[in-house]
Design brief:
Order of helices and strands: HHEEEEEEEEEEH
Structural class: alpha+beta
Largest sheet: 8 strands, antiparallel
Distance between the termini: 112 Å
Shape: elongated
Length: about 190
């Protein structure tokens, strides 16, 4: 019995935590996360540099024409037309934000609180459709309103999601009718 007491008295529990090693791992992990974040930020800036040939965006005109349609929702970004993963970041087109769209006879006004607003003249609109995705955002089939427009020499797809998804089909019809009317009018004028 004394040998059991001696054994119990001699045993010492091991240190539970090695604080120096734990602090080293935490600092290393934080440095790794900071490095990854910095690399992503540099990649975003580099993409903007590569797209610097894109001309400045048209500003929303002050003299507002009567609105045909209005929509509130989210702007999910712009890509090169037909390439839904080739995000355009130049001039703030890659910044997601809330959006207020207004369709007038003059074109499409895109007002984005906290990001750069822009305007797509009616003559530059090319197509509107419902689709399921754009760079960084994938929804159910028909969940995004995609507007294709000409800017400089580049065709651009911009993705929008309405707060009321049922109204997106009405937008597709209205924009495509506007495009057909504009192209018919331009064809007659020539």
């Amino acid at each position: 019995m004394t040998s059991l007491l001696q054994l119990a008295a001699e045993k010492k529990s091991a240190d539970v935590t090695d604080w120096a090693a734990r602090a080293g791992w935490v600092v290393g992990l934080l440095l790794f996360v900071a490095l990854v974040y910095w690399l992503m930020r540099e990649g975003w800036k580099w993409r903007g540099t590569l797209q610097s040939d894109l001309p400045p965006l048209p500003v929303v005109p002050d003299d507002a024409a009567p609105a045909k349609l209005e929509l509130t929702g989210r702007y999910h970004g712009s890509t090169t037309a037909g390439q839904w993963l080739d995000r355009i970041v130049a001039h703030g087109l890659g910044t997601r934000s809330r959006v207020e769209l207004t369709l007038t006879d003059a074109g499409l006004a895109v007002v984005r609180p906290g990001a750069a607003d822009f305007f797509v003249p009616a003559g530059q609109l090319r197509e509107a459709r419902l689709d399921k995705g754009i760079a960084g955002k994938v929804l159910a089939e028909g969940g995004l309103l995609i507007v294709t427009w000409q800017h400089g020499e580049k065709l651009i797809d911009s993705g929008f999601r309405s707060d009321h998804a049922a109204e997106q089909a009405q937008w597709v019809k209205a924009i495509n009718n506007m495009i057909d009317t504009t192209s018919t009018t331009e064809g007659t004028a020539r």
